[in-house]
Specification:
By secondary structure, this protein is an alpha+beta fold. 35% of the residues lie in helices and 22% in strands. The chain is built from six helices and 13 strands. Strands 9-8-7-10-11 form a five-stranded mixed beta sheet. The N and C termini lie far apart (69 Å). It binds zinc ion (ZN). Zinc ion binds next to loops.
Length: 290
């Protein structure tokens, strides 16, 4: 038996909800039709052109929100002339195969601070402490969401500007071939990691940039130059060093290059950065003399 909360969301369609321009909406209530004024931002007004006949009324902390479903026409996918590989969340939030690093330092600092604060509030356990805790958690997730928007926007713009597709690792189940060190496991499977992935995917779609999923197995253990794969290639959490040919670099950058190369192999796309001439981010990597 389904259980309904007294203030759960209510869904509407065109039979019981009609729009009066973008200024007001007429809703069928238990007391008959009620005209409710609506406030809409400029961006929402533009989007409103693509409105569909589905609406949800939410009640949250003393306010009513009307969720409007819009259908956005998708531009046709462009033909990609290369691949931008993106590795998410090993050490940094995102690193691409061009060597651009999106650190998560400030996010991490905030998370650590938040967690400490939450723990101390939890110990206190009072009603006001709980309320404070909710507030703190909300602040953290809004900040992370904002960061994810910024990062995904940049990545998609870079791919679009260089007419490349974006390659990402497939979302993996809990039993995966890629061993993730403990502190990272949390991040790998966290909602924020999935959110960033989701943002990249939908922004890419919107921009007509193809997204190519790549199997994640071994992307951080294989050498992009000589193809030698071994867990020993991972010198540490952050550093990759090939045991056979000596190629070294930041582990997440190496993974991003591998991801790009795999996507290019799967599809008839020539990868842009040839593996021999890895351009490594400044001051982070050493290419040994051969
Ligand atoms: Zn190698």
């Amino acid at each position: 038996m389904p259980v309904f909360r007294p203030r759960g969301a209510v869904s509407f369609d065109r039979r019981n909800l009609t729009w009066k321009g973008v200024e007001a909406v007429s809703v069928l209530t238990l007391d008959g039709r009620t005209l409710v004024p609506v406030k809409m931002g400029d961006w929402q007004k533009v989007q409103f052109r693509n409105v569909r006949g589905e609406f949800f009324l939410h009640y949250r902390r003393g306010r009513f929100y009307l969720v409007v479903v819009v259908e956005e026409p998708e531009p046709p996918l462009r033909r990609a002339e290369g691949v931008l590989g993106v590795d998410l969340g090993i050490v940094n939030l995102a690193v691409d195969s061009d060597g651009n690093i999106h650190k998560g330092d400030c996010v991490d600092q905030l998370r650590v601070r938040t967690e400490r604060l939450k723990a101390s509030l939890q110990r206190r356990g009072t009603k006001s402490a709980r309320r404070h805790m909710r507030k703190v958690a909300g602040k953290e997730s809004r900040f992370r969401k904002h960061m994810n928007h910024v990062i995904s926007k940049e990545l998609v713009a870079r791919a679009k500007g260089t007419r490349r597709a974006i390659a990402l690792e497939e979302l993996e189940g809990v039993c995966s071939g890629r061993t993730v060190p403990r502190p990272q496991r949390r991040r790998q499977f966290s909602w924020a990691y999935r959110q960033l992935r989701r943002f990249i995917t939908y922004k890419a779609k919107r921009a007509g940039v193809p997204v190519i999923p790549v199997p994640p197995q071994g992307t951080s253990r294989q050498c992009p130059r000589c193809r030698y794969e071994a867990s020993g290639n991972r010198k540490s959490r952050v550093l990759f060093e090939c045991r056979r040919c000596g190629l070294a670099g930041p582990a997440d950058y190496i993974a991003a290059v591998n991801i790009a190369a795999r996507a290019a192999v799967d599809r008839p796309i020539v990868p842009r950065s040839s593996v021999g001439g890895l351009v490594l981010p400044q001051g982070q990597a050493v290419l040994p003399e051969r």
